[in-house]
Amino acid sequence: MTSPGSRFRQAVLDEHPLQVVGTINAYSALLAQRAGFRAIYLSGAGVANASFGLPDLGLTSLAEVCEEVRRVTSACPLPLLVDIDTGWGSALGIERTVRELTRAGAAALHIEDQVAEKRCGHRPGKALVDRQEMCDRISVAVRSRSDDSLVIMARTDAIAVEGIESAIDRAQAYVASGADMIFAEAMTTPQQMKQFSQSVNVPVLANMTEFGQTPLMTVDQLRECGIGLALYPLSAFRAMSLAAWNVYQAVRNDGTQQSMVPQMQTRQELYDVLNYLEIEKRIDDLLSKNLASKRDGQ
Asked: Which helix (H) or strand (E) holds 186?
């Protein structure tokens, strides 16, 4: 069986651009698989927001993210790209991060060039470490791999802080330090995407997050710009959250959920995703065999 990293790399080769969709938990990952996606994503913001009710300000730990990765990878075979923020520490911290997330089943990790007190990539006030410090982060991550197929993706937030030319210079240095792919955060125009992808000789990821700095583009438009991966980090989570809010309001205001039932996934649809009936049958068969064994023993 191929490794998670190998499957991720193959998906990048097979699909142009590769659509990588955010999944905040194991059940979301199963839905993404049924929808036909080849790769999925665990967002740092998704873990902070959905699992802990916290803002995306680097407040979650390696252990907390690892637990979410284990839950997702144990339920879904799709290769998982994981947001590791700035790597949780110095060289030894990054070393441990790579080791633990590999054990948890991650296929790819992206590490960014913000300072440890990071901000959401589409918010103001971002600050970057110097180029050499980020190159050191990447070098450590690459050297720490126990599986060479694990993808180390370098994210740069320099476009919003230092401009496109500096971001490209940084990206080229990150590739020279061993980065397999580049996450160019907060590109604002198709022209920037084209310039960036033409200047970096590894696959470039464009973040199609809603309500941010980057225009929402189709895969055809992204392909024309040379983009290798298109990320949709919190699209489903945002829709799920609004749906939940609408249900809570209806139940509270109307005294019943009746008006919202047509918008709900049915019990049978849930069972289909979870393979519920087959597992239930296996339990019934096992119980029947146990009963028969007890009768035979009497």
From this structure: none
CA 259 – CA 23 distance, rounded (Å): 28
pLDDT tens track for 119-128: 888 888 899 9
Cis amide leading into 55 (omega within 30):
no
Report, as residue numbers or ranges, the catalytic residues.
Answer: 41, 56, 83, 85, 110, 112, 120, 155, 185, 207
Is 187 in contact with 157 (CB distance < 8 Å)?
A: no
Per the listing, tokens 């209806």 go with 250
Residue whose structure tokens are 């919190």: 234
Structure confidence by residue, pLDDT tens digits, 135-159: 999 999 999 999 999 999 999 999 9
Question: Which residue shows structure tokens 């913001």?
Answer: 45
Angle between helices 267-274 and 276-297 (to 10 degrees): 70
By the 10 Å C-beta count (0-12 exposed, 13-18 middle, 19+ buried), 247 is classed as middle
Q: Where are the alpha helices (DSSP H) in 76-189?
A: 91-104, 131-143, 158-162, 164-176
pLDDT higher than threshold 70 for residue 297: no
Please name the helix (run of DSSP H) or strand (run of DSSP E) that holds residue 235, with its range, or none: helix 235-254
**d(C-alpha 70, C-alpha 49), whole Å:** 18
Please give the C-alpha separations between residue 58 and each of 52, 120, 241, 258, 295, in angstroms, as whole numbers.
12, 9, 21, 40, 59
